[in-house]
């Protein structure tokens, strides 16, 4: 099994490009705008999970928990 490692300071675009299944986890957490046409390739190129969490007022612990349940691990925490 390949390790699925996410850095909170990588852009949403980078994360979803490397791990397409991460998009579903993000949507479930409340990052619903990333499924709008063009958002992932525009705003997603500058938005990181850390910035998005602050903007959407989502606790980093909640993000970490949701991704860990989906089989991911984190760096940069």
Notes on the structure:
- The chain has a single domain (4-72), classed as SP0561-like.
- Helix 2 (22-29) crosses helix 4.
- It has 77 residues and is mainly alpha-helical.
- The chain is globular and about 30 Å long.
- The chain has helices at 12-18, 22-29, 49-56, 60-69, and strands at residues 4-7, 72-75.
How many beta strands in the DSSP annotation?
Answer: 2
Q: What is the fold named in CATH at topology level?
A: SP0561-like
Beta-strand residue percentage: 5-15%
Shape: globular
What's the name of the CATH homologous superfamily?
Answer: SP0561-like
Integer-rounded radius of gyration: 11 Å
Descriptive tags:
77 residues; mainly alpha; two-stranded parallel sheet; 43% helix; globular
Summarize this, please?
Helices cover 43% and strands 10% of the residues.
Secondary-structure blueprint:
Elements: E1 4-7, H1 12-18, H2 22-29, H3 49-56, H4 60-69, E2 72-75
Parallel strand pairs: 1-2
Helix pairs in contact: 2-4
């Amino acid at each position: 099994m390949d390790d699925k490692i996410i850095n909170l300071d990588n852009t949403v675009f980078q994360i979803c490009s490397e791990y397409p299944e991460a998009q579903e986890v993000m949507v479930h957490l409340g990052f619903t705008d990333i499924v709008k046409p063009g958002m992932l390739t525009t705003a997603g190129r500058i938005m990181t999970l850390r910035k998005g969490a602050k903007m959407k007022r989502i606790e980093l612990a909640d993000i970490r928990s949701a991704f860990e349940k989906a089989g991911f691990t984190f760096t940069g925490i």
